[in-house]
Amino acid sequence: MPNNAGSAASGILTEKEVKEMISQLGVKATNCHEAFSLDEVLSLAENTGFPVVLKVNSLKITHKSDIGGVRLNLGSKAEVKEAYQQIMARSLPLDPGATVTVQRMAKPGLEVIVGMTTTPQFGRVVMFGLGGIYAELLKDTSFSLVPVTRSAAEDMVRSINGRKLLQGFRGGPAADQEAIIAIIEAVSALCEKHPKITELDLNPVIVYERGAVVVDARAAVIQEI
Ligand code: ADP
Ligand code: MG
Question: Whole-model pTM above 0.85?
Answer without folding.
Answer: yes
